[in-house]
Automatic annotation (TrEMBL):
Domain GCVT N-terminal: 13-281
Oligomer status and interactors: The glycine cleavage system is composed of four proteins: P, T, L and H.
Taxonomic placement: Bacteria, Bacillati, Actinomycetota, Actinomycetes, Micrococcales
Family indicated by similarity: Belongs to the GcvT family.
Pfam family, one: GCV_T
Span of domain Aminomethyltransferase C-terminal: 301-378
EC number: 2.1.2.10
GO molecular function, one term: aminomethyltransferase activity
Domain of life, source organism: Bacteria
The protein's name in its UniProt record: Aminomethyltransferase
Keyword Transferase set for record: yes
Species the sequence originates in: Arthrobacter sulfonylureivorans
Reaction(s) the record says it catalyses: N(6)-[(R)-S(8)-aminomethyldihydrolipoyl]-L-lysyl-[protein] + (6S)-5,6,7,8-tetrahydrofolate = N(6)-[(R)-dihydrolipoyl]-L-lysyl-[protein] + (6R)-5,10-methylene-5,6,7,8-tetrahydrofolate + NH4(+)
Length: 382
């Protein structure tokens, strides 16, 4: 009996990461930098100055056509047809049972001669599934579905000095565009990279709890853009940052990760994402009946934040206890580098989800006290 193995894919920036001495890990079928030197240093750089991330493992799927908005209203749980050009929206793609296939960011771009245009960005390991599911759901709609993942790189600059760094690569005439870009929006911006002009899609969304930008760039230009940003960021104490600190940053910000907090077994209402589901839109959408029933019934379990009263951290799959009885399970957890105490996300029975509830996490046979708290754990000063 043989077991089929798949070699992890490399992003267009793999050799750049090697030159920087990165440690790698297989994430979502991609060989990605876990850290370069110190994950703690990279975490603090994002909180205090800036970090540079390769996010090219994320997917990019273009939806184009006269019925693009109508189609996405059917394919996803949100009302994407109402998103203004230049803005973005967080949404979910669910199956007919209401299970979460993936969480997504969708950017509405200006229409062209082919009709309305949307860029759908799924998570790394789910990108092929999402692209195939969108293509299947597109039957009967006047749209085209194009999976551009293989040709597109994604670089992110995250942290309070992100604007300062980007302005060094953008002409003065577009400085105001960068500075004034709203959260969850995107625009075409001219960059000067390796002495040559390059028009790229710049977005301001983020997954770290800090201000930050994402730049969508053709693979052929990814290396030169990466190195230009590293050079521009030297005076701002920018560090290249890997997935280890990305995970600690998103956990502090209370942001869910697919495969941990989100899955086919998790309802959007369980995960605290009921507001993403637009049951008021007139049109039908995949999973609507199941989600309506779930909302009516209420969640038996809920995703909560846990703050440790001691020093030891809970980890994924550790049981959550109340009076010695298992009431839930940790989905993500570690010591918070910014806050200085253990934090975790966990699903618990709904009756114990109220902030202020004292519970325990079974840390390999030793119960440790944790308190249910409001999310996020960390919120940046504006």
């Amino acid at each position: 009996m043989t077991t089929e193995t798949t070699t992890p894919r490399h992003t267009a920036l793999y050799e750049e990461h090697e030159r920087l001495g990165a440690s790698f890990t297989d994430f979502g079928g991609w060989m990605m930098p876990l850290k370069y030197s110190s994950e703690l240093a990279e975490h603090h750089a994002v909180r205090n100055s800036a970090g540079l991330f390769d996010l090219s493992h994320m997917g990019e799927v273009w939806i184009t056509g006269p019925e693009a908005g109508k189609f996405l209203d059917y394919a996803l749980v949100g009302k994407l047809s109402s998103v203004a050009e230049g803005r973005a929206k967080y949404s979910l793609i669910c199956n007919a049972d209401g299970g979460i296939i993936d969480d997504l960011i969708i950017y509405r771009r200006p229409a062209n001669q082919d009709g309305d245009r949307y860029l759908v960005v799924p998570n790394a390991g789910n990108a092929p599934t999402v692209a195939a599911e969108l293509a299947a759901r597109a039957k009967g709609f006047d749209v085209t579905v194009e999976d551009a993942t293989a040709n597109t790189s994604l670089v992110a600059v995250q942290g309070p000095k992100s604007v300062e760094i980007l302005l060094q690569l953008v002409p003065a005439a577009q400085h105001a565009t960068v500075r004034e870009m709203k959260y969850y929006s995107a625009d075409e911006v001219d960059f000067t990279v390796a002495g040559a002009p390059l028009k790229l899609l710049l977005a301001r969304t983020g997954y770290t709890g800090e201000d930050g930008f994402e730049i969508y760039v053709p693979n052929a230009n990814a290396g030169s853009l990466w190195n230009a940003l590293l050079e521009a960021g030297q005076s701002a104490d920018l560090l290249p940052a890997g997935l280890a600190c990305r995970d600690s940053l998103r956990l502090e910000a209370g942001m869910p990760l697919y495969g941990n907090e989100l899955s086919l077994q998790a309802s959007p209402f369980d995960a605290g994402l009921g507001g993403v589901v637009s049951l008021k839109k007139d049109s039908d959408f995949v999973g609507r009946a199941a989600l309506e029933a779930q909302k009516e019934k209420g969640s038996a379990r809920k995703l909560v934040g846990l703050k440790g009263a001691g020093r030891r951290a809970g980890r994924s799959h550790y049981p959550v206890l109340k009076d010695g009885r298992t009431i839930g399970e940790v989905t993500s957890g570690q010591p918070s580098p910014t806050l200085g105490y253990p934090i975790a996300l966990a699903y618990v029975d709904a009756e114990y989800a109220e902030p202020g509830t004292r519970v325990e996490v079974d840390l390999r046979g030793k119960p440790e006290p944790f308190d249910v708290v409001e999310l996020p754990f960390y919120r940046r000063e504006l």
